[in-house]
Fold this protein.
Amino acid sequence: MNQPTPSGGSRNVQMARSMCWHCQSEVAGEYFCERCVKVQPVSKETDYFTCLGLPRRLTIDPAVLEAKYYERSRAFHPDFYLNKTEAEQAISLDNAATLNTAYRTLRDPVQRAEYLLDLEAGSVKTIRTSPPADLFEEILELQDTLDAYRAGDHSSETGRRLRARLEAERGALERRQAEMEDELQKLFVEWDALQDRGEADGHARMERDRLLRRMREILSNRTYVKNIVNDLVETIG
Amino acid sequence: MAYSDKVVDHFNNPRNMGSFGKDEEGVGTGMVGAPECGDVMKLQIKVQNDRIVDAKFKTFGCGSAIASSSLATEWLKGKTIEEAEQIKNTDIVQELNLPPVKIHCSVLAEDAIKAALADYQKKAGSKTGTGSAQ
């Protein structure tokens, strides 16, 4: 997930979140200094959930997300800064860009989960899951069938048989995709419940790790399955 | 993005594509995947008297991933286990002239080599020593 890179103009005004870049007074409000009313840069450390004023939860009501996004978009819209200083224009533009990325990321459940995993467990690689060997074998075998089908005569007996097999495989894989989506949704609910309980004992930590690992696993497997399904759809329609 | 000539060559004429039986004598299998892009790679070695006499691969992924694993099997043939362990992803990057966005393909190939070697050693170990297996 790419962190927004502030343009050169705002880098020198990016400072401690708590201090206004303009009048140096304490900033208590979210994005504007209460004293001089100048717009404040969204800190690079601010995660996308905070950026949109949401708790770090995986179950998000799309309507709420959209409302928050529009509300903040209005505050940063570059059109409102046309008569302001260059520094303010740059900040509003950066903020708007960050906001857009935050919104796009959180809107999609999969990207949202990927992002949360990044936040909670560092980079994707830090959660090691064992490669799903069975799934890999299945994918590679299916690829052989695909190659054979592509190379052969589609109207021949063999061609029709291969096609029937590929169609059956596609159906099975699509069902598997749906199952993975379902499980992901369930994990979202479990994750949120764990956060809401706010426990920090050993059991809660184990549960946290289990949920993160399982989410990582499903997201990875989902990518593998998606790729082969795309190939199938491309070949047999 | 344009692929280098070597990548295109390996892609069009992949060397050693295929597979050995998993339980065949002296065969080590490495199965790895890149969750970021969904590429899947299977690399197998066949070892006789501590030397890799044959290698095969199957890769589901982009041209660079196919080229990386194809090249890896070429390099593996004739090497001892110790020599094979020395193959680095950077060697593959250099040989194939991979651009930065495709470096992860070479990493995948290195991971596959390591996994195949580990699998072979595990099998060989569990067969000779009845308890001293590493």
User: Anything to note?
Assistant: The two ends of chain A are 32 Å apart (CA to CA). The helical segments of chain A are 8-11, 48-51, 62-76, 86-107, 109-121, 133-151, 157-197, 202-236.
